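Hello,

Our lab assistant flagged a job as stuck in the queue for most of the afternoon. It eventually completed. Since we weren't sure the result was trustworthy after the delay, we are filing this so someone can double-check. Below is the sequence as submitted and the structure that was eventually returned. Let us know if re-running is recommended.
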Amino acid sequence: MEELLSKQLPYSLEAEQSVLGAMLIDSRCVADVIGVLRPDDFFLQQNKDIYESIYTMFNYSETIDPVTVLEKMKHRGVYDEKTGNYLMQLMEITPTAANVAQYAAIVRDKAMLRNLAVAADEIHTSVMDGTGTAGEVMEAAEKKIYALRNGMSSESLTPIGVVLVDVFERLDELSMLDQAFPGQSTGLVDLDRMINGLNNSDLMILAARPGMGKTSLALNIALAVGKKSKKTVAVFSLEMSKEQLGMRLLSNESFVDNKKLLTGKLTEEEWTKISMASAALSQTDIRVDDNPSITVAEMNAKCRRLDNLGLIVIDYLQLMTSAGGDRKSGENRVNVVSDISRALKIMAKELNVPVICLSQLSRSSEKRGENKRPMLSDLRESGSIEQDADEVLFIHREGYYNNDLPNKNVAELIVAKNRHGEVGTVEVQWLPEVTTFADREWKHAEP
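-- returned structure --
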């Protein structure tokens, strides 16, 4: 191992110099390189300083040529008496700017190999130190490889210029969208407008008292994302079996009464409906795991292996074991749940997908007399749930408590926390026969 580490880390001097030379010769190719390379991809510090200067100038739409780059390097304090000659040398040795994409690909490949060598060394050190269990070391190793595969550097501090390039790219993507909100649709129009859809790296806590329809709403959203985005949706069900979830989804999609599906007593027309619904569901990539003792670390590991992940749904928080493994005897349950919620937020950020986690509410909401609408303080074993969540969504159905209401199947979706906009309440229609929620179409028809 020492012999391996003593060898020179892989890099290509010629490719690094040719990339920089091409950008100095023809500034039109800068945009192509910026999309592929980051400053840390350059091995030699001098080359890294030059590229970071060009990177910053591109971000501010400044003119890029040998003279302006030299001035920028002076301003940034990365200039010495040899810098000017080195820039001229880069332009002289670069055969043509036309091949800049190939040069950049070589630089990127060498950077990936160096990062892989560093990760392998860290993994080897963890194994030899014996400071963690095999499962913990493997989890850390998987995270390192996943970060490399997705082009992320977990250890380095990112210059704000690099961050702003990503911000402008995202703004450009959003400007091209034909929808009114940036995130993926939940399938419920008014909810989408309030929370701006489901946004990547967000943790949404969906909470309600038993019987309000937490699982139904979560499956509604999972189905909407699976059908519209064509991405993979991972559903972790710690309470219901795969077959029960499949039955719910089939009822949802076919609009056949859930009770009839449970008994199998179906008319010919209903058999046709569920056959068509089954075919439609099979076109989506919804994957279900019903392991009741799964941990966040195990979920994270499974989701990292999915190439086109679009959403994670977890049913539900209070049934989960600690992110670090099994609960220790006598451990404070509030601390355990706080540990889990924090790990879920980290997972959402690391995988860069929205995570919807269902949660129970305490009985305090049902003791409040007439107004039983839930509040943030009702989150059971809350700890840091409220703090870690980007959105907290409550379901309230007044008709659950009062059958005499004229609109007993109207449900309120209460957005109690929203990092992307306002808080408030959205009314939707509850369809108990097929255990699903839908937009209140009559309301949209009103002038």
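-- support follow-up --
The delay was a queue issue, not a problem with the job. The result is valid. Confidence is low (pLDDT under 50) at residues 1-6, 323-330, 442-447. Strands lie at 203-208, 232-237, 285-289, 309-315, 355-360, 391-396, 410-418, 424-431, 436-439.
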